[in-house]
Amino acid sequence: MWQTNDEALESIAIGAGILGTGGGGNPYTGKLRAKEVLKQNGPVTVVPVDELSDNEAVVCVGGIGSPTCDVEKLRGLESYHALRAIESYSQIKATALICNEIGGGNSFEAMIAASSAGLNIVDGDGMGRAFPELQMKTFFIYGAPYVPMSLCDEKGNVVYITEALNAKWVERLARASTVQMGCVAAYALNPMSGKQIRDTAVPGTLSLTFRIGESVRKARLQHEDPVAAILRTHPGKILFEGKITDLERQTTGGFARGRVKINGLNNFLGELLEIEFQNENLIAMQGESILAIVPDLICIVETETAEPITTEMLRYGFRVKVLGFPAPAQLTTPAALDVVGPSAFGYDLGFTPISI
Q1: pTM score, whole prediction
Q2: Angle 308-300-337 (CA atoms, 0-180°, nearest 5)?
């Protein structure tokens, strides 16, 4: 077990921005919100997945919406109110919370709600990265219930989804409600037992964000290469290096969708990389060659500082390195690839994992 504090939040924000693969909400604003809540209510204890008892009632909370709108319309305590709403509906009091995804600002939602409610958080999540759609959680892929669900906005509106054909329909209904809520909301899922969490979650991911962020901060202080520090902490590879020269991005259907073009520099001089995204980076292409594709992680960081750059913060002229990391094993089974593989995003391609 370990406890969050201001220093930990600084490191988690960096690590979460990297594992977020461009999405999950803005980690900087998430960090600021978490700092304020923890200042008022105290730190949160992080509990390993394997220390959960079978009779736990673990609630997954998270944000939903467009990352572009998330920067313009900051959340408050919507995730806490969603927690209380699902407790009221299910008549089960939560004993701990868990992140919906470990990427970006969503890495802080469980922490914010947990501090507000006086609960612990579990060291894990339902994705091992960030994905744009609700049904892409390992919880649902491996059999945890996807209803009921509560959805809250900053105005005090509460929507319950109590029946649905499948997790994809929960996503559709929640997304439609989120659009009406201004493209930014928070949700809580039906409480899960300790066994369900052990069977379905990606473990250790909050600690991983902390370690990645710590390695970057230490490298910066010692004037060492922070990208090399990341790759020593979390094995991956540099896919590309260059300057952003073109960007297409629009908010549609509650998502930020687009494409970024990066002209190569240094070892990649004269080459061009294109990355397509739907909230998160989905595919990195160099001409006809695919360098990485979902569910593997494609992460864009600033060249000198390794500061992660989310899709809503991409700008012309940024000098960046593109990193690739293998997806967690829970995302590469046949059952998972049906939900989070290339075909789930409209690509008529098979999944070929990156080699490191």
Answers
A1: 0.94
A2: 110
- The residue with tokens 């759609």 is 133
Task: List pLDDT tens digits, range 261-307.
Answer: 999 999 999 999 999 998 899 999 999 899 999 999 999 999 999 99
The predicted pLDDT at position 356 comes to 86
Go through the domains of the chain in sequence order and give each one's CATH number.
2-205 (3.40.1610.10), 233-345 (2.40.390.10)
Reply yes or no on whether the pLDDT at 66 is more than 80.
Answer: no
Give 323's pLDDT tier (boundaries 50, 70, 90): very high
